[in-house]
Amino acid sequence: MRIHILGVCGTFMAGLAQILKESGHKVSGSDIQYYPPMSDYLEKIGIETTQGYQKDQLPKADLYVVGNALSRGNECIEEILDKKLPFVSGPEMLGKELKNRNVFAVSGTHGKTTTSYMLAHILENQGKDIGFLIGGISKNFENSAKLGTDKSFVIEADEYDSAFFDKRSKFIHYSPNNLVINNIEFDHADIFDDINDIKKQFHHLIKIVPSSGNIIYFKDDKNSSDLIKDGLWCNKIEINSHSIKTDFKLMELEVDKKKFSLKELPLIGKHNFKNYISAILAAKLDGVLINDSIESLKTFKGVRRRMELVVDASGIKVYDDFAHHPTAIRLSCEAIREKYLDKKILGIIELGSNTMSSGFHKNFIDSFELLDQTFLLDHKQIYQYTNSFNSIESLASKLKETIFDYDIILVMTNKDSQKFIQPIMSYIENK
């Protein structure tokens, strides 16, 4: 089948392009602009691309896959609708490809990408040629997607909507056999009114997990526990329950009265400890022994822009982190403070998401109180904070004056982090 993807340069859609190509389809794509690393990725896997959405550039295809960034008024969308050409959303297309797979869906407000890669790494390291499609980039994997020959498939299961014509969450289309729910908090204020809107989408997802399937969740996460109480039709694995106990200080996992040490695993922070446990228990459902999973995770190198050390020069270490929600920011700050107890730490936070820039999170300032100082890039000046800047230029100027007062700099944004990191590198080099 000849398939054309609209919005192909997004992480999900680029991964989908690879899955579809490996499935034997002829795949092309278009987007408004192309940028690394996805542009390089598309070129590497041989996807023919066009730039722009002019209707005369729309190639003939048997099916058009529409990304959720496109909406009515787009020339290609109008052409497809006027001519009644066949179209689907990206998640629905992927769901069709996964119909006969043993799908492991990793969901939650935080930790989806890291946990998905942890699970994929365990299964691959144990000799399984699994399929996967995960956002972000991990140093353990050549690509962020693969069809694979093993029946198991790992998917990062996002609660964001599927397309302008399908407002269901993406994960509804994946029909998982095994579902991980790391946590549930309010996010995506542009499409959800409140936490109940989000829980409703998760409830729909739980309804389609088969009775032979499994749900892994943290019982001490109130929203997750409330969700399970609202209805469950499959097996459940409760973390922090009578059968599975965790201790963040000991870094120890207890299952069936057997204790397993996670102290030697490389990633820092309580949140990564929880990610480890989710991945280990999910892998156990695919027949991997807990000790074997732990051995595999000792070689896991993490995910780019998840507490990634990007600069270590002139006595300054710079970490690049994707944290953009108060909980994720707090957890990242806790992890970096725990690692560097006696160091002076500067945080740089950009209010990049729709939820953060709306001012929804009233107690946001409390999330980085463990740091010695924080610079806030708040374009709309939503929050009343001393070191708040409405432009990158003003923030960079202040940073230039004070950079050598700090040992550690933690950059937290879900946008382009290089606008902070490049000036930092320049200031260090020109010291």
Describe the protein.
This protein is an alpha/beta fold and 431 residues long. The chain contains 13 helices and 23 strands. It has helices spanning 11-22, 38-44, 75-82, 90-97, 112-125, 195-207, 222-229, 270-285, 290-297, 326-339, 354-357, 392-402, 418-429; strands at 2-6, 26-31, 48-51, 63-66, 87-89, 102-107, 131-133, 145-146, 152-156, 161-163, 166-169, 178-181, 214-218, 235-239, 244-247, 252-255, 258-261, 308-313, 316-321, 345-350, 373-377, 388-389, 408-412. A hairpin with a 2-residue loop joins strand 16 and strand 17. The longest helix is centred in the middle third of the chain and has 16 residues, at 270-285. The chain is globular and about 60 Å long.
Order of strands in the sheet with most strands: 8-7-9-6-12-13-14
Question: What is the multimeric organization of the chains shown?
Answer: single chain
Whole-number average pLDDT?
A: 92
- The global form is globular
Describe the SSE topology.
Blueprint: E1 2-6, H1 11-22, E2 26-31, H2 38-44, E3 48-51, E4 63-66, H3 75-82, E5 87-89, H4 90-97, E6 102-107, H5 112-125, E7 131-133, E8 145-146, E9 152-156, E10 161-163, E11 166-169, E12 178-181, H6 195-207, E13 214-218, H7 222-229, E14 235-239, E15 244-247, E16 252-255, E17 258-261, H8 270-285, H9 290-297, E18 308-313, E19 316-321, H10 326-339, E20 345-350, H11 354-357, E21 373-377, E22 388-389, H12 392-402, E23 408-412, H13 418-429
Parallel strand pairs: 1-2, 1-4, 2-3, 4-5, 6-9, 6-12, 7-9, 12-13, 13-14, 19-23, 20-21, 20-23, 21-22
Antiparallel strand pairs: 7-8, 10-11, 15-16, 16-17, 18-19
